[in-house]
Protein: DUF4124 domain-containing protein
Organism: Pseudomonas turukhanskensis
Amino acid sequence: MKYAMLFALALWASYSNAQVYSCKTPDGKTTFQAQPCESGQIQTEQKSAPKGASLNPPGCDHPLLGHWRLTHISEVLDKDLIASDSQKWTFSPDGMVENDGFIKQDFPYTCSGSEVVFKSAMENKLEIVRSTATSMVWHSIDFTGYLYVER
């Protein structure tokens, strides 16, 4: 089962250092986002969002935006963790997730409360079990396992 779960994770796939970009538009408006600024905007890279800025996508109860990397997996929450660094995800505010694992691809996602749905060739669902600004535990509903991720 452990190897099947690793293989399933290969179908999905956050870069290790969290990055938040402060982007200033020509009209003076400042936004904070997980992706680099668009052409014509002034960009500064920051390690964390300023007070009051949210890394929660619309409808999501957790700070999902930005880069995440898989550190461990397990079949039972907080037991028998297996180290893994094969998967990376970057969630953007436009509803796209970049998968940088065994297969590099981009696909849409949605987040509602604590549920994240990846809309790739196979729709995959995750439940965010717990989160901080720098780590999360995801329960894979489709593959019956837990994914431990960090920024």
The chain has one domain: 2-17+54-150. Residues 59 and 112 are 5 Å apart (CA to CA). The helical segments are 2-10.
